[in-house]
Amino acid sequence: QLQLVESGGGLVQPGGSLRLSCAASGFTLDYYAIGWFRQAPGKEREGVTCISSGGGITKYADDVKGRFTISRDNAKNTVYLQMNSLKPEDTAIYYCAARSSCTYYTRGGDYWGQGTQVTVSS
Fold first, then answer.
1. Which residues have a Cβ under 8 Å from the Cβ of 57 and sit 6 or more positions away?
2. Tens of pLDDT along 78-87?
């Protein structure tokens, strides 16, 4: 069974940091680009960032550039999202998804995780 599992979410104060993980089971991530998406209450899902299968290409939404960093460790079959300088508007459920490439990644993915809640609040 192909499965992605996100972890690392939680409650953090503004200006704080979190690192999310996206682990795969049942398949290898080596051949997939991985995107991170988020959905805040009452808002549409949005693409946050994407990393190519080899890690050589990364893309970021404008409002997270310079604050978020996506990386991958194919040996651990895991992709990470390091989030720094968090803002209340970053509050959302964060999902990872596997897709063939980062081209048009904001459209979504082929395989999805269940999501992890990130809350930025004082």
1. 33, 50, 51, 102
2. 999 999 999 9
